[in-house]
Specification:
The structure is a homodimer of 339-residue chains.
Chain A (H helix, E strand, L loop, with lengths): L4 E6 L4 H12 L4 E8 L7 E4 L2 E4 L1 E2 L10 E4 L3 H13 L3 E4 L28 E3 L3 H16 L2 E10 L6 H15 L31 H14 L5 E8 L6 E9 L5 H9 L4 E3 L11 H4 L5 E9 L5 E8 L3 H17 L5
Parallel strand pairs in A: 1-2, 1-6, 2-5, 6-7, 7-8, 9-10, 12-13
Antiparallel strand pairs in A: 3-4, 9-11, 11-14, 13-14
Helix pairs in contact in A: 1-8, 3-5, 3-8
Chain lengths: 339, 339
């Protein structure tokens, strides 16, 4: 095992790719070399890393010679096409797309929840959906201490989860509304500025969106609990960065709000932000730029047995995507799984 | 009983008061005279009604001589101070504040749900909270046909529920964010532009906000079902007008999504907006200006017995406030309850 690693970042010019590069530097990942990769359109641009500007190369099947770890965040289609080539070349792929998440031979890993699952990877490790990651990090301490039987979640998701073009669309549509100008919709089917869209990704036949189906299935896979009862309603809100979630859970035995607060205080990757007297609670603008998942508004739900309400907020580009991927890379090198 | 009525609108220069005046005209309420009332600060302004500009008078204890119906929407403190004077003067008060809603001798009325309750008024009829109204209108057909046992609701509430000053704050903060200017918070404790605030009104000792407590208690009172299990999480989103709600319910017997769709199609005050194939679902910008409650995204929730998810959107200034109040006035004159 080398002491330093050659890292490829696929989608290096995208919203998540940019944060991945920043985090590799911030968290002092043992980098021997960085190879930023992107589509032909973006090749030739440069991206900053450790005080240097590094040229972005075109992503091809031959991009992965000598790469130890390839961080993919360029959409499912590119992952499907190029991840096998990276594995073939000897790299371990950490894939932020949904392409491989539910494959039985691909671990779906949140380091605070199921770190051990990286051991059985066969070349690809999947990074879960942003809204799933922050929820399972918040629920893990409760799941372990008292058990969770059912989850009913409603999300308030920011546009950066869709990418840079969606952030630009929210910006330009907001300007148009404030100046009584004309609204153009290119990224989303309807206006997102000053609106709420109860649709994230395409619809399935049962009326659920793909994002909702992902939250249900991925939560079960990460907890290794195929019977876990989960339902989700996912909505897009006019926020640039930071997903918020209203989470209602039923635990398998009674647990007090005070006990849940204590669990959160000692949990890894969680910050308790729950001081109503001082009007302090998790909010997307406060979570942006933070790696931890913020949990607050913890309340007993008297309408159901052993039920609780929580409010969970996280930076979807960080813990919901780039931070989790880099943490998986850290696990790989720290636990000797990378050979 | 006269054929035409003298109507006072208290809070006539506010966001809801303005819509009340518009609706009295739009719905051809049998108006003999309109008396717009407001604080001394706003007295002397004029408000439009039926093609005329009517002078706003200062609200005093002597404002209600000859008034048949007084529509109050000027906050709880003014209702508490002036509603008794209006009743004393012989008017029936329809109060949009929370001041009297839970008083046992004050009916809390949504005309589609519990119209009969107006009969036992003693001078004051309360108009429920905006987020409660739209939820009970959407749930009433299911409640009647199959029974509802539990409600878990998460709201996405627009700023117009707070009033005109909050709409101005969202506008000016949004401009400041887009132009990298300085954010000023006067109405809300934190920035609302491009953010989500999981707080509406003050906190109670159990961690619930007053808005959440209102949704729980008012829903039970309107349905006349003190045992109904309800929990709520209420959040403010950067939307000018239109509240959205993610509603999870458990019914007392199984009901199919198709049956719920049919119930919505034949329900009064509800428009079914549920065509995922064509990306059609309720959204606040589409509901603004409509009197009906929009219901969509109706899905079976397989995580619980007899459970369903719905997405409910309504114009909080209309059905959530002014429309419901004017409908109560229509009930009063139409059913001969007004003497």
């Amino acid at each position: 095992m080398p002491d330093l690693y050659n890292i490829a970042v696929v989608g290096a010019t995208g919203a998540v790719g940019g944060v991945m590069l920043k985090l590799l530097e911030e968290r002092r990942f043992p980098v021997a070399s960085i190879r930023p990769l992107a589509s032909a359109r973006s090749a030739g641009q440069s991206v900053p890393f450790a005080g240097e500007e590094i040229e972005v190369l075109e992503l091809t099947h031959d991009s992965f010679a000598d790469i130890d770890i390839a961080l993919f965040s360029a959409g499912g289609a590119r992952s499907k096409e190029f991840a096998p080539a990276a594995v073939e070349a000897g790299a371990v792929v950490i894939d932020n797309s949904s392409a491989f998440r539910m494959e039985p031979n691909v671990p779906l890993v949140v380091p605070e929840v199921n770190p051990g699952d990286i051991k059985w990877h066969e070349g690809i490790i999947a990074n879960p959906n942003c809204s799933t990651i922050q929820m399972v990090v918040a629920l893990k301490p409760i799941y372990d201490a008292v058990g969770i039987d059912r989850i009913i979640v409603t999300t308030f998701q920011s546009v950066s989860g869709t990418g840079k073009s969606a952030m630009e669309e929210l910006f330009s549509q907001s300007e148009a509304v404030l100046e009584s100008g004309e609204i153009e919709c290119n990224v989303y089917p309807h206006q997102i500025a000053f609106n709420v869209l109860p649709q994230i990704e395409h619809f399935h036949d049962d009326g659920y969106t793909n994002e909702e189906v992902k939250m249900i299935n991925e939560t079960r896979k990460i907890f290794g609990d195929p019977q876990l009862r989960v339902t989700a309603t996912c909505a897009r809100v006019p926020v640039f960065t930071g997903h918020s979630e209203s989470v209602n859970i039923r635990t398998t035995r009674p647990v007090s709000v005070e006990e849940v607060r204590r669990l959160m205080l000692s949990a890894t990757g969680v910050t308790l932000v729950d001081d109503p007297d001082n009007l302090i609670y998790p909010m997307p603008i406060a979570a942006a730029g933070c790696d931890d998942v913020m949990v607050g508004r913890i309340r007993a739900d008297e309408s159901g047995e052993n039920s609780l309400n929580l409010w969970v907020v996280s930076d979807n580009l960080r813990k919901g995507a780039a931070t989790n991927a880099v943490q998986i890379a850290e696990l790989l090198v720290g636990t000797g799984v990378l050979e």
